[in-house]
Amino acid sequence: MTAPTPLRDLHVPGRPLVLPNVWDADTARLVEAAGFGAVATSSVAVARSLGYGDGEQAPRQEMFAAAARIARAVSVPVTVDAESGYGLAPAEVAGRLLEAGAAGCNLEDTDHATGTLRPAEEQAERLAAVRAAAGGALVLNARIDVFLAAQDPRAVLADALDRARRYLEAGADCVYPIHLTDPAVIAEFTEAVRPAAVNVTYLPGMPGPAALAELGVARISLGGGLWQAARTWLKEHLAALARGTPPY
């Protein structure tokens, strides 16, 4: 059997790694069986499957345990959505992820204790500390949250790029301007940080993976999209069953 390609090597601008995010061992196995080179978790999907809300409402021990079950279930690298680190010190975040068998992680710059963005310098220091603790054993995907509430992506582009450069200098392997959907702004963002890897979320109405590759994207995440689609399907079929219609 051919050894899986290291996760870091799968991040190539213009030839993006596509990550259909999963929430348990079974969905991880489906992703691997479909031929994808890596598995990513979705924090919202994992938390909701465990009975909690997103945004670090789930107990961290349950989230890391779920990550460990997923990593054990597949032979390809697993990158874990570790939200903002669950209130742990950076070295402990790195240790918990490595103990779970993760090859990479997302770390976002939202502070869930306050519901606000951390200052860019503070987040860069946190990323540098995770990098120092993990060495090269974790691929760090630094999530940038400034676009989440932005009505005009260009109005926050300068802030996003400042954060991206700081996070890359701190040791991040990839930067993730989550919910940046405008193709022209995506192209500006990738060009501004080239040759660094850029992750985008694939949302309805966005260009497809081939077009995103042309924009210089190196990683495409589906976030909670597949979980939401599966949940919608189940909800509709349960309603049909309740009406007396066979669901399949």
UniProtKB/TrEMBL annotation:
> Which residues fall in a coiled-coil region?
none
| GO MF term list | catalytic activity
Q: Which CDD domains match?
A: ICL_PEPM (cd00377)
Question: Which Gene3D superfamilies does the UniProt entry name for this protein?
Answer: Phosphoenolpyruvate-binding domains
Q: Which is one Pfam family of this protein? A: PEP_mutase
Name the domain of life this protein comes from: Bacteria
Extract the InterPro entries matched here: ICL/PEPM (IPR039556), Pyrv/PenolPyrv_kinase-like_dom (IPR015813), Pyrv_kinase-like_dom_sf (IPR040442)
Query: What's the protein called, per UniProt?
Result: Carboxyvinyl-carboxyphosphonate phosphorylmutase
Its organism's taxonomic lineage begins at: Bacteria, Bacillati, Actinomycetota, Actinomycetes, Pseudonocardiales
